[in-house]
Amino acid sequence: MSKIIYLNKKIIYSLSSRCISLIALFINIHLLFITRVSAYIAPPQLPSVNKEYYVSPTGNDSGSGAQASPFKTFAKAQTVASSGDAIHLLAGTYTGTLDISKHGLTVIGHNAVVDAQGSKQLAVHVHANNIFLTGIEAKNSLSHVVYIEGSGHNISDLYIHDGVYENRGSDGYAANNSWGSGLSIKHSDTQKTGLVTQNIRVDNVRIKNIYGEALDMYGVDNVIITNSHVSDSFSIGYYIDNSKNITLENNLATCSNDVRFYRNGNPMGAYSLALERIEDWFPNSKWGAQLQNIRIVNNISYGCGGLSLWGSRMSSTEANNGLQNAIIAHNTFLNIPAGSGIWVKSLPGNSNIRVINNLVSRSIDLPNGTINQGNVVGVSYTTSNTDSTSFKLQNGKDKGIALAEVSYDYSGNTRDSQPDAGAWEINGSTATPTPSPAVKPGDFNSDNIVDIRDFNLLISQFGNPYTILDFNKLITNFGK
User: Fold this and answer.
1) Predicted pLDDT at 47
2) Where are the domains of the chain?
C-alpha cells in the first residue's frame, strides 16, 4: 500500500516512519479550526491509497498507467481505477470536462490545468462519494467551473478562474442571465443520482474572475470552508443558500474595482445568506427551509460589499423561514463601497442570531432580537495590498467581549481575555496603508500570493532538489 501524506496543503511521498512523524509535527503547527467549538482541526490530509495511476496530455490510453507509461485521458484511468486508488494528473492542459464519477478516488493534480475552452458547461464535475481532489487549475466553463455533488469529499488547493461565460455579455461584462458559480457545492436529485451532498471540507481554494457567484452552497449539509480567497466575481463571493451546518472560517474576499463583475454599479457582496426554494430546481427534494447552524468567524473582506442575509423566497407559511442558530463573530469587513457592513433581514423564523466582535467600515443593521455586542463600526482604512496581514488594525484592539467559541484569531493565535474586535488579535502590532509590495520571495508567478502554483513552478524549473519542506519555509516566513 502506498502512503501519501498531505503537508500544509502540499503533496509529498512518505519514505519512512520517521518522515511521517516529522510531517505530523509540522501539520500541527498549521492547524485550522473545528465547526462548533473552539478546537483545532488539521487541514485535509491525503489518505492512504492502494494503486496509483498516472495521466498525461502526452500519454497513451494503451499504456499501463504507470508514471513511465501514463494514460492520455482521465476517463481511461477512472475506468481502470477502483475505490481507494489515486489518479495523478501530470503537468499540462486537459481540455473538456474532468468528470469524476467513481466513489473513493483520490485525484491529484501536478501543475494540471483543466480547460473547458468556453464550450463545456463544467470544467470539473464531481458526482460520487468520498473524493479527495487537490492541485487542479480549472477555467473557461460555460456554467459552473467546478460542480460538486455527493458526500465525504475533501477539496483543496484549487485555482478556479474565468468561468460562467453564459452570463457574460458581448461587451465582456457580467449580466443577469445565469447563476453559475466558480465552485458550486450543490444539492443533488437523490432519486436520480443516489447522492446526498453533505460532509464536505474545502480548504485553500482561490477563485477569481467568475461571471457568476464565486462560491455557493445550495441545499447542502455540513460544509466547512477555510483558508480560501475569492475576488472580482459577479454579485456574491461566498454564498450560503438554504443550507445547514455551514462553517466559513479564516477566509478572504477582495475586490479591485473590476467593473466587468459589478452588479447594479457595485462590486460583489463578500458574504451572503438567503433562503431560496430548493424545490424550484429539485422538485422531489422536500428540503423546505433549513438555513440553520451557521458559523461565520475570523473572515476578512476588503473593497467588496459586506455580509447580508438578503431575504427568503419561501412561502409565508413555511416552517423555520429564517436564519436559525448563527454566530457571526470576529470578522473584518473594510472599505465597503455601499450598503451596510452587516445586514440581517427580519424574517419570521429568525432565532438565536449573534453578531459579536466584528470590525466593519459601515453600519450594522439587525432586526430586533439579534444579539449585537462588541462590534466596532465606521472604521476608515484603505490599502493597495490584498494579503490578510494588511488588515490587522489597531481600531479593534481590546474592544471585543470574551467569546469562548472563538478563542483564536485569523492566524491561530490565542485571543486575549479582553479580545480585539475583528479577525486579528493585535498583540501590539498594527497595519498601516502601504503601496503594493515588491514580489515576495517564493512568489514565482508574481500574483502576490505564495501557494501551490509557485511550488509547481519551483519544481518544474529547478527539479527535485527542492522539496516541500523548502517551500513550507517560504510560507512560514513570508505568508501568503
Assistant:
1) 87
2) 438-480
